[in-house]
């Protein structure tokens, strides 16, 4: 796609281009280029063309159409799509009956005129940060195909970064939107937990799961989120008056200096030097690990007893280990989560927005097994969520924003991203900040065919 979602919708709504032409062009591009990135698992060709023709007929009749009219998009392969078996990135569910209806957030996007054209690759059952899938292949980073796209929503992030789709849907439990958005250089949103319905999205960790969008521009991300949420956000009149601080301590260690420099520039733009510390972040991350392992393991335990060999061995072993965790440890993890969440929310009595790295650095190479954390050599894949996992416990909305290309000169041009965090229910604050930073050239990284920063 060479146009943004907003631009596509405008050309279709005003009759400058047919929805069928948009969809056919998109399907052709995916068919030609997906073999390079492995981000698409299934094309929805027949459905997409039928929806496009129906939309074109409505426009010809002068009927009103939605704000995303004719905009193609893809969904992480854990969202129900009517008539298809929801795989959740596995073959374990292949015997399930097809979905009888779309996931609720997909229904809302369709009601706004958007057209689903593909399902997208992911880590099996969303358990991972790399989108290396034993069944459907490894999704490659469009910025450098020798590098990981991140996960677990890697297919979603890569499809947007590659310019194949203007937006895509993913899920975020411990960072599965924020990590791949950062590594691929696109915008992503983990909304306030519980704000968007999860009906029709295959679960991973019920107490942490969220669903959200990816897009190439912050304006597109806003339009998509508003359609998913069902109403427009209240605008912030004076963005420069917002109180902004960086998270210190844990969030200053083991970070690429270019990310810290990017955060410094943003703080300077808002005239802030404030830094706040968050207590017990390491324990928060450990609690997120425990909760995820226990809930994920228990969800899959009945199937693991029947068909264990159908799972990717790495996923299977982690799920089994999680199912065997003692209940006392899980209870303690949830108690700590409640304490930690209270502390996080109290920070927003002092500030309106917090800034933190999204990942330790740029995307690792696919053949890179380790990275350094705290002076120790650790698994690269397990630690891509170093900065996202602790914040998941708070349930706040988090915007993953790509730093501009100039900020990543020291990383051979590979994207770098930050987390912009607000109090629960304050997505409007995040988008106000994101739009201001994009307009100022402090955030935004061009996807193929789409200029950045987004100054609309």
TrEMBL record:
Any GO molecular function: catalytic activity
InterPro entries: Amidase, Amidase_dom, AS_sf, Carboxybiuret_hydro_AtzE
Domain of life: Bacteria
Domain Amidase: 21-430
Pfam families per the UniProt record, alphabetical: Amidase
NCBIfam families assigned: amido_AtzE, PRK09201.1
Stated name of the protein: Amidase
Organism: Acetobacter aceti
């Amino acid at each position: 796609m060479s146009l943004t979602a907003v631009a596509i919708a405008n050309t279709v709504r005003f009759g400058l281009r047919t929805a069928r032409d948009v969809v056919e062009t998109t399907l052709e591009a995916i068919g030609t280029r997906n073999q390079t990135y492995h981000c698409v698992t299934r094309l929805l060709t027949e459905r997409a063309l039928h929806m496009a023709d129906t939309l074109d007929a409505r426009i010809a009749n002068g009927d009103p159409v939605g704000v995303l009219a004719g905009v193609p998009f893809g969904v992480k392969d854990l969202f129900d799509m009517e008539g298809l078996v929801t795989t959740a990135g596995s073959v374990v569910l292949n015997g399930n009956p097809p979905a009888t209806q779309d996931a609720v957030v997909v229904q809302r996007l369709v009601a706004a005129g958007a057209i689903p054209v593909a399902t997208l690759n992911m880590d099996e059952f969303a358990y991972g940060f790399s989108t290396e899938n034993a069944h459907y292949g490894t999704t490659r980073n469009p910025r450098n195909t020798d590098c990981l796209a991140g996960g677990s929503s890697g297919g979603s992030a890569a499809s947007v970064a590659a310019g194949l789709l203007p937006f895509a849907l993913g899920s975020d439990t411990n960072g599965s939107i924020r990590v791949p958005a950062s590594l691929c250089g696109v915008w992503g949103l983990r909304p306030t937990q519980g704000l968007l319905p999860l009906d029709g999205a295959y679960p991973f960790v019920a107490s942490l799961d969220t669903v959200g969008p990816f897009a190439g521009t912050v304006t597109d991300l806003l339009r998509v989120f508003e359609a998913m949420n069902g109403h427009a956000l209240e605008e912030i009149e004076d963005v420069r008056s917002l109180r902004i601080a960086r998270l210190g301590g844990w969030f200053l260690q083991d970070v690429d200096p270019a990310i810290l420099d990017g955060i410094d520039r943003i703080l300077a733009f808002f005239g802030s030097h404030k830094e706040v510390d968050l207590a017990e972040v390491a324990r928060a991350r450990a609690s997120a690990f425990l909760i995820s392992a226990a809930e994920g393991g228990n969800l899959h335990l009945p199937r693991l007893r029947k068909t264990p060999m159908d799972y990717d061995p790495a996923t299977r072993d982690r799920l089994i280990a999680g199912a065997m965790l003692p209940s006392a440890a899980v209870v303690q993890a949830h108690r700590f989560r409640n304490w930690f969440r209270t502390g996080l929310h109290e920070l927003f009595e002092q500030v309106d927005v917090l800034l933190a790295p999204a990942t330790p650095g740029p995307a690792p190479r696919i053949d890179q097994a380790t990275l350094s954390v705290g002076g120790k050599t650790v698994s690269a894949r397990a630690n891509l969520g170093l900065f996202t996992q602790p914040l998941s416990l708070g349930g706040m909305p988090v915007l993953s924003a790509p730093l501009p290309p100039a900020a990543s000169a020291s990383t051979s041009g590979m994207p770098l991203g930050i987390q912009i965090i607000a109090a629960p229910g304050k997505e409007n604050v995040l988008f106000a900040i994101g739009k201001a930073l994009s307009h100022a050239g402090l955030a935004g990284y061009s996807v193929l065919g789409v200029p950045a920063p987004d100054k609309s």
